[in-house]
Amino acid sequence: MGTANGRKSIFITGAASGMGRETARLFREKGWFIGGYDVNADGLRALEKELGADNCVVRKLDVTDKADYEKALAEFGAATGGKMDILYNNAGIGVGGFFDEQPFEDILRVVRVNFIGVLNGIHSAIGLLKATPGSLCFTTSSSSATYGMPGIAVYSATKHAVKGLTEALSIEFRRYGVRAADTLPGLIDTAILPPGTAERAPKEGMFRLIQPIEVARIVWEAYNSDKLHWYVPEEIGDLDKAAGNNPEQMREQIVQMMAFAEALNVDPKKQ
Ligand code: NAD
Question: Domain holding 18: CATH number?
Fold first, then answer.
Protein backbone atom coordinates (compact mmCIF):
# COMPACT_ATOMS: atom_id res chain seq x y z
CA MET A 1 0.00 0.00 0.00
CA GLY A 2 1.38 3.37 -1.06
CA THR A 3 1.04 6.83 0.43
CA ALA A 4 0.16 10.02 -1.41
CA ASN A 5 3.27 11.97 -0.31
CA GLY A 6 1.69 15.29 -1.22
CA ARG A 7 0.14 14.07 -4.48
CA LYS A 8 -3.52 14.79 -5.23
CA SER A 9 -5.80 11.82 -4.59
CA ILE A 10 -8.95 10.23 -6.01
CA PHE A 11 -11.11 7.55 -4.34
CA ILE A 12 -12.85 5.43 -7.01
CA THR A 13 -15.51 2.75 -6.53
CA GLY A 14 -16.09 0.21 -9.27
CA ALA A 15 -12.38 0.64 -10.05
CA ALA A 16 -11.72 -2.94 -11.18
CA SER A 17 -13.47 -2.56 -14.53
CA GLY A 18 -14.87 -0.24 -17.17
CA MET A 19 -14.95 3.50 -16.57
CA GLY A 20 -13.68 3.25 -12.99
CA ARG A 21 -10.60 1.42 -14.14
CA GLU A 22 -9.95 3.84 -17.00
CA THR A 23 -10.29 6.74 -14.56
CA ALA A 24 -7.73 5.13 -12.24
CA ARG A 25 -5.30 4.76 -15.17
CA LEU A 26 -5.79 8.30 -16.42
CA PHE A 27 -5.34 9.93 -13.02
CA ARG A 28 -2.24 7.82 -12.38
CA GLU A 29 -0.82 9.17 -15.68
CA LYS A 30 -1.57 12.67 -14.39
CA GLY A 31 0.53 11.92 -11.29
CA TRP A 32 -2.32 11.41 -8.81
CA PHE A 33 -2.52 8.91 -5.95
CA ILE A 34 -5.33 6.39 -6.52
CA GLY A 35 -7.72 4.63 -4.13
CA GLY A 36 -9.33 1.75 -6.02
CA TYR A 37 -12.34 -0.12 -4.55
CA ASP A 38 -14.52 -2.89 -5.91
CA VAL A 39 -16.03 -6.29 -5.07
CA ASN A 40 -13.93 -7.85 -7.83
CA ALA A 41 -10.70 -8.88 -6.04
CA ASP A 42 -8.99 -10.27 -9.17
CA GLY A 43 -9.66 -7.06 -11.08
CA LEU A 44 -8.24 -5.04 -8.19
CA ARG A 45 -5.06 -7.10 -8.12
CA ALA A 46 -4.55 -6.46 -11.83
CA LEU A 47 -5.21 -2.76 -11.29
CA GLU A 48 -2.68 -2.53 -8.45
CA LYS A 49 -0.07 -4.21 -10.62
CA GLU A 50 -0.70 -1.79 -13.42
CA LEU A 51 -0.70 1.35 -11.24
CA GLY A 52 2.27 0.29 -9.11
CA ALA A 53 1.80 -0.44 -5.39
CA ASP A 54 3.45 2.86 -4.37
CA ASN A 55 0.90 4.86 -6.31
CA CYS A 56 -2.29 3.43 -4.91
CA VAL A 57 -4.25 1.84 -2.14
CA VAL A 58 -6.45 -0.89 -3.54
CA ARG A 59 -8.94 -2.80 -1.45
CA LYS A 60 -12.04 -4.93 -1.70
CA LEU A 61 -15.15 -2.95 -0.72
CA ASP A 62 -18.84 -3.62 -1.17
CA VAL A 63 -20.32 -0.11 -1.31
CA THR A 64 -23.54 -1.34 0.30
CA ASP A 65 -21.65 -1.99 3.56
CA LYS A 66 -21.46 1.43 5.26
CA ALA A 67 -19.25 0.27 8.14
CA ASP A 68 -16.70 -1.17 5.74
CA TYR A 69 -16.93 1.93 3.52
CA GLU A 70 -15.99 4.00 6.58
CA LYS A 71 -13.01 1.73 7.28
CA ALA A 72 -11.84 2.01 3.66
CA LEU A 73 -12.07 5.81 3.91
CA ALA A 74 -10.10 5.85 7.17
CA GLU A 75 -7.32 3.80 5.52
CA PHE A 76 -7.37 6.09 2.48
CA GLY A 77 -7.21 9.17 4.73
CA ALA A 78 -4.25 7.67 6.59
CA ALA A 79 -2.45 7.27 3.24
CA THR A 80 -3.24 10.82 2.04
CA GLY A 81 -2.71 12.84 5.22
CA GLY A 82 -6.47 13.31 5.67
CA LYS A 83 -7.12 14.62 2.16
CA MET A 84 -9.32 13.57 -0.79
CA ASP A 85 -9.42 15.69 -3.94
CA ILE A 86 -12.09 13.60 -5.70
CA LEU A 87 -14.61 11.12 -4.38
CA TYR A 88 -15.80 9.19 -7.45
CA ASN A 89 -18.82 7.04 -6.62
CA ASN A 90 -19.02 4.97 -9.77
CA ALA A 91 -19.81 1.36 -8.79
CA GLY A 92 -23.08 0.21 -10.30
CA ILE A 93 -25.07 -2.79 -11.44
CA GLY A 94 -27.90 -3.15 -13.92
CA VAL A 95 -30.69 -5.70 -14.04
CA GLY A 96 -33.01 -5.69 -17.01
CA GLY A 97 -36.59 -6.86 -17.50
CA PHE A 98 -40.11 -5.70 -16.78
CA PHE A 99 -40.46 -4.39 -13.22
CA ASP A 100 -43.32 -6.71 -12.29
CA GLU A 101 -41.46 -9.76 -13.57
CA GLN A 102 -38.26 -9.15 -11.60
CA PRO A 103 -37.65 -10.84 -8.24
CA PHE A 104 -38.02 -8.17 -5.59
CA GLU A 105 -34.60 -9.02 -4.14
CA ASP A 106 -32.98 -8.12 -7.50
CA ILE A 107 -34.77 -4.78 -7.45
CA LEU A 108 -33.54 -4.00 -3.94
CA ARG A 109 -29.99 -4.97 -4.86
CA VAL A 110 -29.96 -2.37 -7.66
CA VAL A 111 -31.19 0.28 -5.21
CA ARG A 112 -28.61 -0.74 -2.60
CA VAL A 113 -25.62 -0.63 -4.93
CA ASN A 114 -26.56 2.26 -7.23
CA PHE A 115 -28.12 4.61 -4.68
CA ILE A 116 -27.55 3.52 -1.06
CA GLY A 117 -23.91 2.84 -2.03
CA VAL A 118 -23.59 6.45 -3.18
CA LEU A 119 -25.21 7.77 0.02
CA ASN A 120 -22.86 5.60 2.11
CA GLY A 121 -19.87 7.02 0.29
CA ILE A 122 -20.77 10.70 0.35
CA HIS A 123 -22.03 10.72 3.93
CA SER A 124 -18.85 9.03 5.15
CA ALA A 125 -16.35 10.94 2.98
CA ILE A 126 -17.55 14.50 3.49
CA GLY A 127 -14.98 15.07 6.27
CA LEU A 128 -12.08 14.27 3.91
CA LEU A 129 -13.60 16.39 1.12
CA LYS A 130 -14.12 19.34 3.49
CA ALA A 131 -10.48 19.10 4.55
CA THR A 132 -9.30 19.38 0.92
CA PRO A 133 -9.45 22.74 -0.87
CA GLY A 134 -11.06 22.53 -4.33
CA SER A 135 -12.38 18.99 -3.81
CA LEU A 136 -15.05 17.39 -5.98
CA CYS A 137 -17.79 14.88 -5.15
CA PHE A 138 -18.41 13.13 -8.48
CA THR A 139 -20.88 10.34 -9.27
CA THR A 140 -21.82 8.21 -12.27
CA SER A 141 -25.46 8.74 -13.15
CA SER A 142 -26.69 7.69 -16.61
CA SER A 143 -28.50 8.75 -19.77
CA SER A 144 -31.37 6.75 -18.22
CA ALA A 145 -31.70 9.69 -15.79
CA THR A 146 -33.07 11.85 -18.62
CA TYR A 147 -36.38 9.93 -18.75
CA GLY A 148 -37.59 6.82 -16.86
CA MET A 149 -36.47 3.93 -19.06
CA PRO A 150 -38.70 0.88 -19.54
CA GLY A 151 -36.90 -2.44 -19.21
CA ILE A 152 -34.49 -0.93 -16.67
CA ALA A 153 -37.05 0.97 -14.60
CA VAL A 154 -35.39 0.66 -11.20
CA TYR A 155 -31.87 1.17 -12.56
CA SER A 156 -33.16 4.30 -14.27
CA ALA A 157 -34.87 5.45 -11.04
CA THR A 158 -31.63 5.06 -9.06
CA LYS A 159 -29.79 7.16 -11.65
CA HIS A 160 -32.46 9.88 -11.41
CA ALA A 161 -31.92 9.77 -7.65
CA VAL A 162 -28.17 10.23 -8.10
CA LYS A 163 -28.75 13.19 -10.41
CA GLY A 164 -31.14 14.88 -7.98
CA LEU A 165 -28.83 14.24 -5.06
CA THR A 166 -25.93 15.78 -6.97
CA GLU A 167 -27.92 18.92 -7.76
CA ALA A 168 -28.94 19.40 -4.12
CA LEU A 169 -25.48 18.67 -2.72
CA SER A 170 -23.80 20.97 -5.22
CA ILE A 171 -25.66 23.74 -3.37
CA GLU A 172 -25.44 22.38 0.19
CA PHE A 173 -21.70 21.68 -0.03
CA ARG A 174 -20.92 25.26 -1.02
CA ARG A 175 -20.80 25.79 2.75
CA TYR A 176 -17.52 23.89 2.61
CA GLY A 177 -16.19 24.90 -0.81
CA VAL A 178 -16.80 21.30 -2.03
CA ARG A 179 -18.21 20.92 -5.57
CA ALA A 180 -20.61 18.15 -6.63
CA ALA A 181 -21.16 16.98 -10.21
CA ASP A 182 -22.15 13.86 -12.12
CA THR A 183 -21.82 12.21 -15.50
CA LEU A 184 -24.69 10.88 -17.62
CA PRO A 185 -23.11 8.43 -20.07
CA GLY A 186 -24.97 6.94 -23.02
CA LEU A 187 -23.72 3.56 -24.21
CA ILE A 188 -20.22 2.80 -22.96
CA ASP A 189 -18.31 -0.31 -23.98
CA THR A 190 -17.93 -2.03 -20.58
CA ALA A 191 -18.71 -5.32 -18.87
CA ILE A 192 -22.02 -4.00 -17.52
CA LEU A 193 -23.67 -4.23 -20.96
CA PRO A 194 -25.78 -7.33 -21.58
CA PRO A 195 -24.16 -9.76 -24.06
CA GLY A 196 -24.55 -8.67 -27.69
CA THR A 197 -25.32 -5.02 -26.87
CA ALA A 198 -21.97 -3.68 -28.07
CA GLU A 199 -22.31 -5.56 -31.38
CA ARG A 200 -25.86 -4.25 -31.92
CA ALA A 201 -25.03 -0.64 -30.99
CA PRO A 202 -25.81 1.99 -33.65
CA LYS A 203 -22.78 3.26 -35.55
CA GLU A 204 -23.77 6.88 -35.06
CA GLY A 205 -26.07 9.06 -33.00
CA MET A 206 -26.15 9.65 -29.26
CA PHE A 207 -26.29 5.93 -28.45
CA ARG A 208 -23.22 4.99 -30.49
CA LEU A 209 -20.76 2.85 -28.57
CA ILE A 210 -18.21 4.96 -26.68
CA GLN A 211 -15.01 3.78 -25.02
CA PRO A 212 -14.74 4.13 -21.22
CA ILE A 213 -11.63 6.31 -21.50
CA GLU A 214 -13.99 9.09 -22.69
CA VAL A 215 -15.73 9.04 -19.32
CA ALA A 216 -12.35 9.07 -17.53
CA ARG A 217 -11.45 12.22 -19.47
CA ILE A 218 -14.73 13.77 -18.35
CA VAL A 219 -13.84 13.12 -14.69
CA TRP A 220 -10.58 14.97 -15.33
CA GLU A 221 -12.41 17.88 -17.00
CA ALA A 222 -14.97 17.98 -14.21
CA TYR A 223 -12.23 18.44 -11.62
CA ASN A 224 -11.15 21.55 -13.49
CA SER A 225 -14.66 22.96 -13.91
CA ASP A 226 -17.79 24.01 -12.06
CA LYS A 227 -20.18 22.28 -14.51
CA LEU A 228 -22.90 20.16 -12.91
CA HIS A 229 -23.97 17.48 -15.43
CA TRP A 230 -21.54 15.91 -17.89
CA TYR A 231 -23.28 14.18 -20.78
CA VAL A 232 -21.26 11.58 -22.72
CA PRO A 233 -21.67 12.21 -25.60
CA GLU A 234 -22.86 15.81 -25.30
CA GLU A 235 -26.01 15.11 -27.39
CA ILE A 236 -27.46 13.24 -24.38
CA GLY A 237 -27.97 16.75 -22.99
CA ASP A 238 -30.44 17.42 -25.84
CA LEU A 239 -32.36 14.30 -24.83
CA ASP A 240 -32.55 15.63 -21.28
CA LYS A 241 -33.93 18.96 -22.50
CA ALA A 242 -36.46 17.28 -24.82
CA ALA A 243 -37.69 15.00 -22.02
CA GLY A 244 -38.13 17.99 -19.72
CA ASN A 245 -39.92 20.08 -22.35
CA ASN A 246 -42.38 17.44 -23.54
CA PRO A 247 -42.46 14.19 -21.50
CA GLU A 248 -45.52 12.81 -23.31
CA GLN A 249 -43.84 13.13 -26.70
CA MET A 250 -40.69 11.54 -25.27
CA ARG A 251 -42.79 8.66 -23.93
CA GLU A 252 -44.17 7.94 -27.42
CA GLN A 253 -40.71 8.18 -29.00
CA ILE A 254 -39.34 5.67 -26.52
CA VAL A 255 -42.24 3.26 -27.13
CA GLN A 256 -41.51 3.37 -30.84
CA MET A 257 -37.77 2.99 -30.43
CA MET A 258 -37.88 0.10 -28.00
CA ALA A 259 -37.63 -3.48 -29.05
CA PHE A 260 -40.46 -4.57 -26.78
CA ALA A 261 -43.17 -2.47 -28.43
CA GLU A 262 -44.78 -5.80 -29.29
CA ALA A 263 -44.95 -6.87 -25.66
CA LEU A 264 -46.69 -3.59 -24.82
CA ASN A 265 -49.32 -4.41 -27.46
CA VAL A 266 -48.24 -1.39 -29.45
CA ASP A 267 -47.87 -1.36 -33.18
CA PRO A 268 -45.35 1.46 -33.78
CA LYS A 269 -46.60 1.89 -37.35
CA LYS A 270 -50.10 2.80 -36.11
CA GLN A 271 -48.84 5.50 -33.71
P1 NAD B 1 -18.46 -2.31 -15.20
O2 NAD B 1 -19.33 -3.48 -14.91
O3 NAD B 1 -17.31 -2.48 -16.11
O4 NAD B 1 -17.93 -1.67 -13.84
C5 NAD B 1 -18.72 -1.59 -12.66
C6 NAD B 1 -17.87 -2.05 -11.50
O7 NAD B 1 -18.64 -1.89 -10.29
C8 NAD B 1 -17.47 -3.53 -11.58
O9 NAD B 1 -16.07 -3.68 -11.48
C10 NAD B 1 -18.19 -4.17 -10.42
O11 NAD B 1 -17.48 -5.24 -9.84
C12 NAD B 1 -18.31 -2.99 -9.47
N13 NAD B 1 -19.34 -3.21 -8.45
C14 NAD B 1 -20.57 -3.77 -8.62
N15 NAD B 1 -21.21 -3.84 -7.44
C16 NAD B 1 -20.37 -3.33 -6.49
C17 NAD B 1 -20.46 -3.14 -5.10
N18 NAD B 1 -21.54 -3.52 -4.41
N19 NAD B 1 -19.41 -2.57 -4.45
C20 NAD B 1 -18.30 -2.19 -5.13
N21 NAD B 1 -18.16 -2.38 -6.46
C22 NAD B 1 -19.18 -2.92 -7.13
O23 NAD B 1 -19.45 -1.20 -15.79
P24 NAD B 1 -19.29 0.37 -16.06
O25 NAD B 1 -20.11 0.65 -17.26
O26 NAD B 1 -17.89 0.81 -16.02
O27 NAD B 1 -20.09 0.94 -14.82
C28 NAD B 1 -19.68 2.08 -14.09
C29 NAD B 1 -20.89 2.94 -13.81
O30 NAD B 1 -21.38 3.48 -15.03
C31 NAD B 1 -22.09 2.23 -13.19
O32 NAD B 1 -22.61 3.03 -12.15
C33 NAD B 1 -23.07 2.12 -14.33
O34 NAD B 1 -24.38 2.07 -13.86
C35 NAD B 1 -22.79 3.41 -15.06
N36 NAD B 1 -23.22 3.52 -16.47
C37 NAD B 1 -22.78 2.64 -17.41
C38 NAD B 1 -23.16 2.82 -18.73
C39 NAD B 1 -22.68 1.90 -19.84
O40 NAD B 1 -23.23 1.96 -20.94
N41 NAD B 1 -21.67 1.08 -19.60
C42 NAD B 1 -23.98 3.90 -19.09
C43 NAD B 1 -24.40 4.78 -18.10
C44 NAD B 1 -24.00 4.60 -16.80
Answer: 3.40.50.720
